[in-house]
Amino acid sequence: MAELGKVIPLHGDTPPVGESAPLAPPVAERDGGDWERKLAGGLAFLRRRVTGDYEVDDFGFDADLTDRVLLPPLRPLYDKWFRVETRGLDNVPDTGGALVVANHSGTIPIDALMTSLALLDHHPAHRHLRMLAADLVFSLPVVAPLARKAGKTLACNADAERLLSGGELVGVWPEGFKGIGKPFSERYKLQRFGRGGFVAAALRTGAPIIPCSIVGAEETYPMLANVKTLARLLGLPYLPITPTFPLLGLGGLVPLPSKWIIEFGEPIETASLGGAAAAEDPMLVFNLTDQVRETIQSTLYTLLMQRRSIFF
Fold this sequence. Notes:
Elements (H helix, E strand, L loop, with lengths): L26 H4 L1 H20 L11 H8 L4 H7 L3 E3 L10 E5 L7 H13 L6 E5 L9 H7 L3 E2 L2 H9 L3 E4 L4 H4 L16 H9 L3 E7 L9 E2 L1 H7 L5 E2 L19 E4 L10 H5 L2 H25 L6
Parallel strand pairs: 1-9, 2-5, 2-6, 3-4, 3-5
Antiparallel strand pairs: 6-9, 7-8
């Protein structure tokens, strides 16, 4: 029982004169709950892997492995190294099929990974981006199975339409190797968008097309030259020479810390354009492809004007 006449402070009140305030718990103790949650989550993940209590879809996508193992190492790059600023996330629907179409650059396709992380971590619905990748990705020994588990599939109309019809958010980079393998002197100048296969897939499924413009990736590995002869011998689309590669050896694989902006533009609706019949109209497909390309290009120029510096 409290002594008579002694003031007992209520929670949040200043203690009486002569009495010291309770000390705050040490940092390690305050952070203990977070570490406990991480440990519990890790143990639960291991239990699911051992018991087989996880799902893999028809394309080989393993959402549990992607969320717990494949994407976490990329977050320091996203948050601390590139300091990615994401805009227009409200233009990406919370549910249903949609096609994100973006510019491609940077010698190594880190831009696709950062776009995927932006949508998973910062979109209100935390959506996975199912990326359409080139054939080369699925011919590499270690990369191919990891790409499948991360939700990537071949960049073909059949797979794109299946994913869109199933309500997935699909990502495509129509410039392909022409975009990521272009010299630094042509930075932020979009290459040809192919024959518009991505537009045909959107038309057949009625999915909206969301133009996505990425600034910053061009400066991660500035390509100064391309050793074409050696690239052909190795079966590669290009073999870059950058300011740090091959001069610094493996150190040349560390990207430069450019400041990134990823902006998702207003959706271009396709549901009312005629479906499968519209997809067979080459003029409509061409015009819609050109519209998407011009939208991304003009947005890139606007973002470049707003950017104060490459690295800050």
